[in-house]
Amino acid sequence: MTVAANPNAEAETLNAKLAGLDLAERLSLVAGLGGRVVFTTSLGIEDQVITAEIGNHRLPIDVVTLQTGRLFPETLSLIDETEKQYDIHISRYEPEQADIDAYAAKYGLNGFYDSVEARHACCGMRKLKPLARALAGATIWITGLRRGQSSNRADTPFAEYDAERHLLKVNPLADWDLDIIKAYVADNSVPVNPLHARGYPSIGCEPCTRAIKPGEPERAGRWWWEQDEKRECGLHVAEEATAISAQQ
């Protein structure tokens, strides 16, 4: 895949093409564009749907996960189970020990509870810096973002240009709602995290994730002690990516 003269226009064209396709067709089209295509999975239910399609159709897409060091045991077990079921390899990208030590020295191991700054710093060293390594050399980044996950994801396109990382970002499940995802999982015997059945629709690091209450949005259990309804870890926020890039 060559670098487009106008990557934003290329993304808009791809966005329009993907809108009229089903999931398998979307992934096949993206996989055939050339270059290194990377899918980052958090092992959540929507990500498991994408992994199932990649594995079942033997698509040339690298599947990677950010093994932050603070994941639930159930998530870690699901990584192994998923690899076995689909005969694929999920590459693990971990934080650097030096970064963990530096964070603990400045904020304390669990300092993310004390301030938004400290929480962003933790996400930065455990997620954003490993993500930068995972996407090194990639031309396309596939995610499990959906419009129904939260209000600040309501306008998620099928394809967009990530100017900070200089690649196309593809969100093939942008228009899928949770009921469709659950039906796909049931119909195709897709392994999912048992925490979903315990009230965790969105699962991140164990210290930063709780079950949601009836009527709460899907991502209400993430960093629940913060008041900002649009809180994110930074993986899908442009200014956070820029900050991390400057630290490389």
TrEMBL record:
Sequence positions that bind [4Fe-4S] cluster: 122-123, 205, 208
Top EC category: oxidoreductase
Catalytic activity: [thioredoxin]-disulfide + sulfite + AMP + 2 H(+) = adenosine 5'-phosphosulfate + [thioredoxin]-dithiol
Pathway(s) served: Sulfur metabolism; hydrogen sulfide biosynthesis; sulfite from sulfate
GO MF terms held by the record: 4 iron, 4 sulfur cluster binding; adenylyl-sulfate reductase (thioredoxin) activity; metal ion binding; phosphoadenylyl-sulfate reductase (thioredoxin) activity
UniProt main location, coarse: cytoplasm
Cofactor note: Binds 1 [4Fe-4S] cluster per subunit.
Active site: 233 (nucleophile)
HAMAP family: CysH (MF_00063)
Protein name according to UniProt: Adenosine 5'-phosphosulfate reductase
Organism of derivation: Rhizobium tibeticum
Higher taxonomy: Bacteria, Pseudomonadati, Pseudomonadota, Alphaproteobacteria, Hyphomicrobiales
